[in-house]
Design a protein that fits this description.
Elements: H1 8-26, H2 33-55, E1 65-70, E2 78-83, E3 93-96, E4 103-105, H3 114-125
Antiparallel strand pairs: 1-2, 2-3, 3-4
């Protein structure tokens, strides 16, 4: 079927549809609500990761541990506290964020370090600097 052989009302309708498609193609893509929360969780854990490297890895209380960030995942971003020098070992703690806050779980959550870890990640997730 040739466009020129269509009746005028039909041509006008097709032109409107085409214009609408062009305009919608230029509009900014809508961001799913989950994407904003995920980006915020990643940013929160990036702050925690930076501070943990600056503070914990230089502290004798954490000499047995290392950190493995898993921030570039499409699922829940997290930081793993692992035995130092053993990146494939089971984590001793997992730090997660679902937005602006952070929490942790794992074997270290019932250790003498639990209070300090919790206090530190809470402060760092809220934007505080320093050890």
């Amino acid at each position: 079927m040739d466009l020129m052989s269509l009746p005028a009302p039909r041509k006008a309708g097709l032109v409107l549809v085409a214009c609408g498609a062009l305009v919608s193609g230029c509009a900014a893509p809508s961001v799913p609500s989950g994407a904003g929360a995920h980006a915020q969780a990643v940013a929160t854990l990036q702050r925690v990761n930076t501070r943990a490297h600056e503070c914990w890895l230089k502290d004798s209380d954490f000499r047995e541990y290392g950190l493995v960030p898993e921030l570039d995942t499409t699922s829940t971003p997290r930081l793993l506290i692992i035995p130092r020098g053993k990146p494939q070992a089971l984590p001793k703690a997992v730090i997660v964020s679902t937005g602006g806050g952070a929490q942790f779980y794992g074997p270290l959550s019932s250790s003498p370090l639990a209070g300090r870890i919790n206090d530190d990640i809470s402060r760092w997730a809220a934007g505080a600097a320093g050890c």
